[in-house]
């Protein structure tokens, strides 16, 4: 990732108070590092916040064709966000006091585009001058990805809410279990019938075979779940007696639930009353 480096300064010459020997041997090296740095570097007056110098990388980041477009402008002009005077001065005071804060800020280019940068600041002092070093790491892609994920999460949550409403308002019995026959989700129609059957409350995590069931009943239902857990889609019509002596006819469907790796993690089931069709 590219970085943007901003400097608030009073005298750039004093920045290197102790000149490394390599710079003494190559007088052009310091200028080359400044201009060719992967970071965009801006030098600013710490009192007036005016931009006094930039390097080539900064010109590219801010889409500047001529340095005269940006020189002597306030640094705040580069910000896409609107800060109150109090917010701006408070942040600057943190830097001047010696703190090393960092913020995610949105910048604007001179061609109308915007980009995000993680902006970290540090005060550098000598016996003659003070410089504020501001490094901006381009996080535009990261911010856009985060926004996209949040939008997707919102969409998924909305879809889940709609799905839950559909499930709950359906006249059919709808439920699902995991590989251990424990309930995952179910609607009130299923809950009412099962609580009458088990004579106890049921909730998420309830094991459909945890109570003593007649062997023939347990075998009957377990076969459907096991077939679906093996990858088969099962449909069956059945009838059960009603309290008034009549019969209720229903059509049941069992389908395997798969995760993103296409592994079977459970079974979804639905029972539709088809009595009127008989």
Descriptive overview:
- With 278 residues, the protein is an alpha+beta fold.
- The protein has two domains: 120 residues, PAS domain (Beta-Lactamase, 2-Layer Sandwich), CATH 3.30.450; 105 residues, 2-Layer Sandwich (Beta-Lactamase).
- Helices cover 31% and strands 30% of the residues.
- It is built from seven helices and eleven strands.
- The chain has a six-stranded mixed beta sheet. The chain has a five-stranded antiparallel beta sheet with strand order 8-7-11-10-9.
- β4 and β5 form a beta hairpin.
- The longest helix is centred in the middle third of the chain and has 30 residues.
- The radius of gyration is 34 Å and the shape is rod-shaped.
- The protein starts with a strand and ends in a 5-residue tail after the last strand.
- The model has no long low-confidence stretch (mean pLDDT 81).
């Amino acid at each position: 990732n590219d970085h943007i480096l901003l400097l608030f300064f009073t005298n750039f010459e004093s920045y290197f108070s102790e000149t490394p020997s390599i710079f003494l041997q190559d007088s052009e090296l310091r200028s080359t590092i400044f201009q060719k740095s992967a970071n965009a570097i801006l030098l600013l007056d710490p009192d007036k916040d005016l931009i006094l110098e930039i390097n080539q990388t900064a010109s590219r980041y801010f889409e500047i064709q001529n340095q005269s477009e940006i020189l002597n402008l306030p640094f705040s002009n580069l910000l896409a966000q609107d800060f109150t005077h109090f917010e701006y001065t408070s942040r600057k005071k943190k830097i001047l006091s010696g703190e090393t804060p960092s913020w995610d800020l949105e910048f604007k280019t001179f061609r109308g585009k915007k980009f995000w940068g993680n902006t970290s600041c540090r005060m550098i002092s000598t016996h003659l001058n003070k410089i504020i070093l501001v490094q901006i790491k381009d996080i535009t892609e990261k911010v856009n990805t985060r926004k996209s994920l949040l939008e997707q999460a919102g969409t998924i949550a909305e879809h889940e809410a709609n799905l839950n409403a559909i499930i709950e308002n359906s006249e059919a019995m709808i439920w699902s279990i995991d590989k251990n026959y424990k309930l995952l989700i179910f609607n009130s129609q299923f809950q009412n019938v099962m609580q009458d059957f088990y004579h106890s409350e049921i909730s998420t995590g309830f094991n459909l075979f945890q109570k003593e069931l007649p062997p023939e009943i347990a075998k009957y239902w377990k076969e459907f779940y096991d077939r679906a857990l093996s990858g088969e889609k099962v449909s069956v019509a059945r009838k059960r007696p009603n309290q008034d002596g009549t019969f209720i006819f229903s059509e049941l469907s069992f389908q395997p639930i798969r995760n993103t790796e296409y592994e079977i993690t459970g079974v979804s089931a639905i029972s539709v009353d088809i009595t009127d069709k008989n």
